[in-house]
Write the structure tokens for this entry.
Amino acid sequence: MQVCGNTRLRRRSAVLILGDQPEIDAAAIRAVVDGWDRLRSPVVRISYRGHLGHPVLVSGTIFPQIEALRGDKGVWKLLEAHPEWIQEIELDLPHPRDVNTWEDYTSLTTGT
């Protein structure tokens, strides 16, 4: 994970959102933030009708481990190694689509 900005600022948590999932609803972001406020778990992630997804909130308590990682899959390997850190928040919303190709984009913009 690349760290941007002033690393001396006090960071309590960060919400990870994928850029290729533009349908992520504000309700999902609010749910992980509210879940973290309530649970204070190192990681809070969304489950869409039983399917894990984004956003994922990570607590500042695990930032040192995350900042030491390299590669684009490092965070997920760390989370797989520590399932005890994770609390899931279930939402009754459809899982946001990945938009990785022109066809995906066309489908998204035309509603098909």
User: Anything to note?
Assistant: Strands lie at 13-16, 43-48, 51-59, 86-91. Helices lie at 26-39, 63-67, 74-81, 102-110. The mean pLDDT is 88. The two ends are 34 Å apart (CA to CA).
